[in-house]
Design brief:
Helix content is about 30%, strand content about 15%. By secondary structure, the chain is α+β, with helices and mostly antiparallel strands. It has a 5-stranded mixed sheet, sandwiched between helices. This is (2Fe-2S)-binding protein.
Length: about 160
């Protein structure tokens, strides 16, 4: 397959890498970039396990090609958190609310929550439910996940009105 140079920002760092532009983004991020938090679930954009933030929006990376990120910005779970290694507000809220069980869906859940709260820091309960609806979890009820996102929203000072 023909390789091209793909230049983009990955988790706050500018990168330039040779890659097959037609490789699925989920595979490119895991195999070529070592971002193991990006997981394939359904391969059809339905489960949210492969969710990343692309140019500020939560997207399913199984439905994108590596070449599409040229000039853009991608955030994976490896790019979330504080520089000193501490958890950010969303990660901490997921822990405190008990919103994780097996952990397979957790990276996608956290990235969907981050994308929402970055663009809408005062998200309402219903807006949070809607934003998280693209992420499936087979282990737990969604109430703790929604609670965790609300806790993170409040911790960031954006309590809904």
């Amino acid at each position: 397959m023909e390789q091209i140079t793909i230049r983009f920002n990955l988790n706050g760092r500018d990168v330039s890498v040779q890659a097959d532009p037609n490789k699925r983004l989920v595979d490119f991020l895991r195999e070529d970039m070592g971002m193991l938090s990006v997981k394939e679930g359904c391969g059809e954009g339905e489960c949210g396990a492969c969710t990343v933030i692309y140019n500020g929006e939560a997207v399913t990376s199984c439905l994108m090609l590596a070449g599409q990120v040229e000039g853009g910005s991608v955030i994976t779970l490896e790019g979330v958190g504080k520089e000193n290694g501490e958890l950010d507000e969303i990660q901490q809220a997921f822990v405190e609310a008990g919103a994780v069980q097996c952990g397979y869906c957790t990276p996608g859940m956290i990235l969907s929550a981050k994308a929402l709260l970055d663009r809408n820091p005062k998200a309402t309960h219903e807006e949070i439910r809607r934003a998280m609806s693209g992420n499936l979890c087979r282990c737990t009820g969604y109430s703790k996940i929604i609670q965790a996102v609300e806790m993170a929203r409040d911790a960031k000072g954006g309590a809904a009105v």
